[in-house]
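User: Study the chain.
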Amino acid sequence: MINQEKVAKKTCTECPCLRDDHDIHQGPVDVRNRVGLGKGQLFDNREITSGLGYSWVPPGLDADQIEDYFSKLPRGKVPRIGTPGEEWRNRQLSIQIPQQDFSPHYNKFLGDETRKKFLNFVKIRGQKALDVGIVKAIEDENSECKICERMFQIGEIVVVAEKFKQDNCWHPNCFRCCECNELLVDLVYCVLDEKLYCQRHYAEKMMPRCASCEELIFSKDYTNALNKDWHSSHFSCEKCDDSLSGQKYVLRDDKPYCIKCYELHYANKCEDCNEIIGINSKDLSYKDRHWHEACFKCNKCKDSLVDKPFGSKADRVYCGECYDAAFASRCDGCNKPFKAGMKKMEYKGRQWHENCFVCVTCKVPIGSNSFIPKDNEIYCTGCYEDQFATRCCKCKNVINGNAVQWHNEPWHKECFTCASCDRPLSGTRFTSKEDKPYCAECFGELFAKRCFSCNKPITGIGGTRFVAFEDRNWHNDCFVCAMCNASMVGKGFITAESDILCPDCAKQKLL
């Protein structure tokens, strides 16, 4: 059997959702009759309305003016039959002009006293605030829109609200509720402090509205909760519908529940005793598991774990000492266990206490500094360089970049220089003497034999050949006849004091 009280308190009679969540289909609505203004010109142009394909048009306009009016509105809000604009109008009729705000027939929670207050509210609203706007062509060239303040052109289509004392013209798209900023459906408006309101928001400025049944509240006895107003009997549990006025309740997903329903449907069960953890009990949780405060104990020694370090293994919790004794991994440095919450340093399957992760040489903790592993040991960068790094045989500093290898020893490029002039030798021609490198120029100047003819050094760099005779030496190119300059290389020659002569020149000189 359906609970009539519960059904009456819901906006939808089939489920607890809002009417806006369903498709609302209404037939032709005589809005002037609904708001109590009587029949006017609303249906005087039915033939034009049906002919143009709209479910509603502003009264008193010809077909061209109607099209002009609708051209000023967003396409999705033009009530052309069978379009989203018609659905928008139907929905806004229910939102902006709820029937329960106009007739006691649609109110289920009015008593005799509140009924009188309701009728008085309807009467005063109709006299002072409620009306239907008129669409017409503007005649005053000095008029401007009350919202956007743009001047109207003579003949321009505007909406006029006669309840306003002054500045009562709007562009069609500016004729909106100042609260919800929606176009005023079928031009029905209310005025308050010279501002436009839809009827819903005007009524809510005057009276509270029940968040459950959507009726205005005329009783002094009502409940304000969750930033909303409620008939006292309508602020109820989302599950059992019992009244929560004056009672404790719990919010879940922004919906109120009585204590009984919340604990029955949503409260957590204790991992230890399997009893519900009520709202008056402290709920301790770890990894989606929950305990009463008194039940949160070590699985082995049964000591309380509240405000203490603990560990978890196979869905059971243990105090720090019991966990360490049974399950904790051990340090590769000191072989002592890692206690719960203790920092652990790990590298390639090995683990250390922070203070045990030290350089094998200097014993200083590595911490977050760089380190170098070698032969299963850990070294700080300084100790590693001192013991294993490649060093330059000249300056003895560590070689970090490219190096030069000479005589099976490493050199910095900048350290591999001529032993005489210190010019860098990397990438150049050089030679050596007594295990020292020399550039070609210095070697020639210091150690090479000199040509008897040109007095320049004779070096073997570049494949230079030379001629030696007795204690004298010549470049191949310099070993020539002193008289005719013919090359004597590989030929017989005659010496005349310091000169070298070919046989012909020697004969000539003797004659």
